[in-house]
Amino acid sequence: MSDALRIGCKVNIYLEIAGVRPDGYHELRSLFHPVAEPHDVLRLTPGGEPGLRLACSDPALSGPDNLVAKAYEAFARRTGSRPGLTARLEKAIPSGAGLGGGSADAAAMLGWLNDHAGAAALERGELSALAASLGADVPFFLLGRPAWATGIGEKLEPVETALTGLYMVLAVPPERVNTAWAYRAWDAMHLGDATQSGTPRLTSGCPASMRPFCVSGTFIANSFESAVFRDFPGVRRLKQRMTVLGAAASCMSGSGSAVFGLFRNQPQAGDARDALAGEGHSVWLSRL
Question: Which domains does the chain have, with CATH numbers?
Answer without folding.
Answer: 3-158 (3.30.230.10), 167-287 (3.30.70.890)
